[in-house]
Structures are given as structure tokens and as C-alpha cells.
Amino acid sequence: MTVKNKPREIFNYAKYLKPENNPFCQIQHALEKATDLIAKEGYANIASDTISEAFDISEAELASLAKYWNDLPMDDYLHDQGRYRRRKIGHVHIDLENNRFSVSDNQMFYQSKSINSANGGIKRFFDTVPSAFYHEPAFQKLLLGNLRVISDVGLKRVNVSFHLFRVLSRPDEVGQATPEGIHRDGHLYVGQHLIHRENVSGGISGIYTPEKKSLFKTTLMAPLDSIVVNDEKVMHDVSEVYCADDRYTGYRDMLVIDYNHA
After folding, report:
1. Which helix (H) or strand (E) holds 189?
2. Longest dimension (CA), the chain
3. How far apart are CA 172 and CA 121, in angstroms?
4. Any idea where the domains of the chain sit in the sequence?
5. How many of the other CB atoms lie within 10 Å of CB of 242?
6. What is the DSSP letter of 30?
7. Is 74 exposed, middle or buried (0-12, 13-18, 19+ CB in 10 A)?
């Protein structure tokens, strides 16, 4: 694999940030509870219909986004040598004050061993998403919609890494969505968005205190069911994923978006 680390393109997504053009301002009241929960409790579970309406994501836009999960390469860094996870990565710098995005081909992702006890402590390199992915309306709306839900006035310039995950479940291999167990991702905020589930059971999302006391559990079932967390306040995990019908391989597709101060 050739490692690249260079700016690729510059996009101006100002139309999604201006109040007269973005759908988020029109129904901000639908997200006020989520914003309040993130500020007070450190997390919010947001139902798919709220996300699709508030972020103005159509079924056609979601279907166009979902196709990118069909050609993800295998994650070769799993500590247990499992073949249950596929992924790609992307990196974006957002300048909210000037309405500009810079996109990087950086393939490297690093988490310390203290953050990711299972797969951390090394530099990991993953294939990046194609340029067309950044033009997908559903991606743009999720990327910026999360920032409105987070509502952190201190976030003016933001470094974003995002991950396309497909966790597989086979009759002879259980899918480990979070092989590291209860953990933090090592970021400021994280948006977790279900893209699709096919022939799977399990995959229960849990939220915990820093002392690993359970606060909340749910199963993301419908496309765009989401959880947004303040990663500095709470920890999280996802339970194993099993085949609902052992005659077929199952999978759980997620878009995970990490936000940090630039």
C-alpha cells in the first residue's frame, strides 16, 4: 500500500451553514433535547426519523451513500486475526468561520494502547474513501448536522476523521463491533450512525460512565439511527453481532465521525 498524506481538494459547503439555506435551522427544536443531553449527560440517542427530517436526508440520498460500504477492504490490524471487519477512512479539516473544507488523503490512524487496548499502540493505515464520497449530500449533511447537535461554540476549526465500518457475522465467526470492549475513542465528540443492518442480531450499543457504570443501552435498528457522544465524558461499546439466519452472512454498516479541535 502506498501511503499518501497530501491535500486533495477544497470544497465550499457554505450553503449548508447559512441559515436561509440549511434545513437544520427550520426544525432546530427537534434537536434541542439531544443538544441538551450531550451537554449535560455526555450523549444523545437520536432516532432515524429525527435525523432524516432534521438533516433533510432523503431515502435516495441515503441509498447513494450506502453503496460505498459494498467495496470496503478487510481490516488487517485486528489483534485476534479476525476477518469480521472491513473499513475505509477519511480526513477533513473544517473551517466554520470561512465555510471551507480541506480534504486529505492521509491514510494513517493512530490510537494509543491506553485508548484502544486491543488494536492501539501502532500506526494503522487504511484505504481512503474516493473523492465522490465527499460530494454525497447525505455525508455532508451528517457531517455538519452533528456539529449543530453538538452546539459547541468553541468549535471553530475542526479536524475530522471518519470511518466506514462493516462488521460481518458468519456461522463460524461472530462479528466483534468493538473488540476492545468498553472504551473511549480518544476524540472530543463522536457521531455513530447506522447505515444498514442485514441478517444480524445483537449489536447492542452501550453508554457508560468513566467508571464503566452502565448509563444507557439501545440497538440501532433503522438506517440513520444515531448516537452522538462527548467522548471526554462517557465511554461506549457495542455487543457482538450474530447471524439472524445461519445460512447467510450478516453485516452491520456504520459511519463513525470523530470531531476534534484543529
Report:
1. strand 189-198
2. 53
3. 29
4. 46-261
5. 17
6. H
7. middle
What are φ and ψ of residue 235, in 5° steps? -115, 170
Q: In whole angstroms, give the CA distance from residue 120 to residue 79.
A: 9
C-alpha cell, 162:
471518519
Q: For the segment 67-125, what is each residue's pLDDT rounded down to a tens digit? A: 999 999 998 878 787 899 999 999 999 988 888 888 988 777 665 656 555 555 667 77
CA atoms of 124 and 230, how far apart (whole Å): 24
Task: Note the pTM of the prediction, 2 decimals.
Answer: 0.86
Confidence class of residue 1 from pLDDT cuts 50, 70 and 90? very low
Whole-number CA gyration radius for the chain: 18
- Does the domain formed by 46-261 have CATH 2.60.120.620? yes
Return the C-alpha cell found at 182: 468498553
Return d(Cα 50, Cα 117) in angstroms, integer.
34
**Residue reference for cell 442485514:** 198
pLDDT band at 163 (very low <50, low <70, confident <90, very high): very high
- Spatial separation of the C-alpha atoms in residues 70 and 53, rounded to whole Å: 26
